[in-house]
């Protein structure tokens, strides 16, 4: 830190800044001066506006980008359903693919890699809430792919913004606005409607996706924290313009629309944007640059202090989606039970582990490429073994999460689990509760001989939190 030690070198150049107005041209002079849509744009290009918000959205929310391309994106055949019998990431519309709304705490074993499918066909909706046709809610996905997308194929989602959390492998993403190279411990956001193609230069990939059906991600407000810390705007990276010139080959454009897959054909590449300027573009962020805050006196603070990106609802302080991480950090709080408290939350919490070990469950049941879901008001917290160790540990300053990175998709919505997520994937741990919390024993002692009231039962014993095979890493 303050950056991740990547195994792969960066391939591309970027422009820095979150929510910044960027402009980029692959050929000097391709951007018009002053006007957005001159009668004849430079070099015979077509001007095309890409709108991520309504034209009349308030200026501070408005996200639009002007593209200057060889041919407009509208030059294609009609979209036709593709693989409609098998491909569906919005099962609410198919009565034989149920959404299960259940209060049970859920945890999944690591999801399998699948070397037989490409990016598009690796998407599995695990859980979600809302409806993309009404632009409300979100979807939570697992992806596991082993093949490049076809050489003349592009994909976009009309349903929402993709926040991609890569767990394994490397993604080389060619977008209309330029190229992005994504490695584990980096995230990538591809806004609604932007076309892209995914190749896998290091073989199979696996990870998680949060699709936001409403609004767009933004940086959380900092309030009393001040003007810096958490995720700093300067550390987000947007691609620079890069284009292909191909007006003779047949291309297939795949579209995720209301959870279904459609395809159109066209005789030109979608990746022909020579220059662009605006506020609506894909970007990536290195999680290693997150500036973590914590308590330097007592008590375990709420996990909201680890929020990287948020998508607020219409109620202040309540998010449709928060993306939260738990990076390596120091714990120094005095006279404090340092793991998270036991709690029930009005928010739904979907957690994943990118790398490392997880010590809030010392049994090792939460593993990289696995996941857990604690839905609205479902109780959770440290398992019995962790509680015992943390209650008796010497409270010297300690570094937790070294070599580890966990994250959380949090939402104010009650999250339903798909048939695939609950049954078909065959990864749900049936003994999650039995291993984690049923072994907890009552420790209450009535006042009497030898028992004095106070904060706890007296001085901590010389204990140790976590075994040597695991890296302490406490989250909610």
UniProtKB/TrEMBL annotation:
Please note every region of biased composition (Basic and acidic residues).
Answer: 458-467
What GO cellular-component annotations does this UniProt entry give?
cytoplasm
Q: Does the keyword Nucleotidyltransferase apply?
A: no
**Keywords in UniProt for this one?**
Dioxygenase, Iron, Metal-binding, Oxidoreductase, Phenylalanine catabolism, Tyrosine catabolism
List the EC numbers from the record.
1.13.11.5
Task: Give me the residues that bind Fe cation, please.
Answer: 343, 349, 380
Q: Specify the pathway.
A: Amino-acid degradation; L-phenylalanine degradation; acetoacetate and fumarate from L-phenylalanine: step 4/6
Instruction: Give cofactor(s), names only.
Output: Fe cation
Q: Record's SUPFAM superfamilies?
A: RmlC-like cupins (SSF51182)
Location of region: Disordered: 443-476
Indicate the segments forming the Homogentisate 1,2-dioxygenase C-terminal domain, all copies: 289-441
Keyword Oxidoreductase in annotation: yes
The record lists homogentisate as bound by 358, 380
| One example GO MF annotation | metal ion binding
Q: Which InterPro entries match?
A: HgmA_C (IPR046451), HgmA_N (IPR046452), Homogentis_dOase (IPR005708), RmlC-like_jellyroll (IPR014710), RmlC_Cupin_sf (IPR011051)
Q: By its UniProt entry, which CDD domains does this protein fall under?
A: cupin_HGO_N
- The chain positions of domain Homogentisate 1,2-dioxygenase N-terminal read 13-287
Kindly list the residue ranges recorded as spanning the membrane. Answer: none
Cite a single Pfam family from the UniProt record. Answer: HgmA_C
> What top-tier enzyme class does this entry carry?
oxidoreductase
- Protein name, as recorded: homogentisate 1,2-dioxygenase
């Amino acid at each position: 830190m303050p950056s991740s030690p990547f195994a792969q070198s960066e391939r591309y150049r970027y422009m820095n800044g979150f929510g910044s107005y960027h402009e980029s041209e692959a050929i000097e002079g391709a951007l018009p001066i002053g006007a957005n849509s001159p009668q004849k744009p430079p070099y015979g290009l077509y001007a095309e506006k890409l709108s991520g918000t309504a034209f009349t959205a308030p200026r501070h929310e408005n996200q639009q980008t002007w593209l200057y391309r060889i041919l407009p994106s509208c030059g294609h055949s009609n979209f036709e359903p593709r693989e409609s019998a098998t491909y569906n990431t919005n099962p609410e519309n198919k009565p034989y693919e149920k959404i299960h709304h259940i209060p049970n705490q859920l945890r999944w074993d690591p999801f399998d890699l699948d070397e037989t499918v490409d990016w598009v066909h690796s998407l599995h909706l695990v859980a979600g809430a809302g409806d993309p046709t009404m632009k409300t809610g979100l979807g939570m996905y697992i992806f596991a792919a082993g093949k490049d997308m076809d050489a003349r194929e592009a994909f976009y989602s009309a349903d929402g913004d993709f926040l991609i959390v890569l767990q394994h492998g490397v993604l080389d993403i060619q977008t209309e606005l330029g190229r992005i190279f994504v490695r584990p411990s980096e995230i990538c956001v591809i806004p609604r409607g932007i076309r892209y193609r995914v190749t896998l230069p290091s073989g199979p990939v696996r990870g998680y996706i949060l699709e936001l059906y409403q609004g767009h991600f933004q940086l959380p407000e900092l309030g009393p924290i001040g003007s810096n810390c958490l995720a700093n705007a300067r550390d987000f990276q947007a691609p620079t313009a890069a284009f292909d010139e191909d007006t003779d080959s047949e291309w297939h454009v795949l579209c995720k629309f209301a959870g279904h897959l459609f395809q159109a054909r066209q005789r030109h590449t979608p990746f022909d944007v020579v220059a662009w300027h605006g506020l609506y573009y894909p970007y990536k962020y290195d999680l290693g640059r997150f500036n973590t805050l914590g308590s330097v006196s007592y008590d375990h603070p709420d996990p909201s202090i680890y929020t990287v990106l948020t998508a607020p609802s219409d109620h202040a302080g309540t998010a449709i989606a928060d993306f939260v991480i738990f990076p390596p950090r120091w714990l120094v709080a005095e006279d404090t039970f340092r793991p998270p408290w036991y709690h029930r939350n009005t928010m739904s919490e979907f957690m994943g582990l990118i790398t490392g070990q997880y010590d809030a469950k010392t049994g090792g049941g939460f593993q990289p490429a696995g996941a857990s879901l604690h839905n609205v008001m479902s109780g959770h917290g440290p398992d019995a073994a962790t509680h015992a160790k943390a209650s008796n540990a010497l409270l010297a300053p300690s570094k937790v999460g070294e070599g580890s990175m966990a994250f959380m998709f949090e939402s104010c919505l009650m999250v339903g689990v798909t048939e695939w997520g609950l049954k078909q994937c065959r990864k749900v741990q049936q003994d999650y509760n039995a291993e984690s919390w049923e072994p907890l024993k009552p420790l209450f002692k009535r006042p009497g001989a030898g028992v004095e009231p106070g904060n706890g039962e007296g001085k901590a014993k010389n204990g140790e939190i976590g075994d040597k095979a695991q890296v302490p890493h406490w989250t909610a």
